[in-house]
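ok so for the tutorial part 2 we go from a plain amino acid sequence to predicted structure tokens. step 1 is just haveing the sequence, like this:
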Amino acid sequence: MSSLPIAVPQLEIGSIAGTGTTTSTANGVITLTAGENNSSTNYSGTMQNGSAASLSFVKKGSGTLTLGGTNTFTGLTT
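step 2 — the prediction. this is what the tokens look like for a chain of 78 residues:
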């Protein structure tokens, strides 16, 4: 993944993996949910607020997700 621009308040994706930048192009409080396809992945990219007041990250599913990048987002991680 090279980049994932988030332009909606809530985005649900099956998984997140690889490198790149995940950032919001929308204003307000943004939530990214990943993992619903139950796969195990590694993401060593950067997650950042971008235009959002805050970006929150929610991990769902039974797979394992390892975050290894420089993350500067200010929302919750669950």
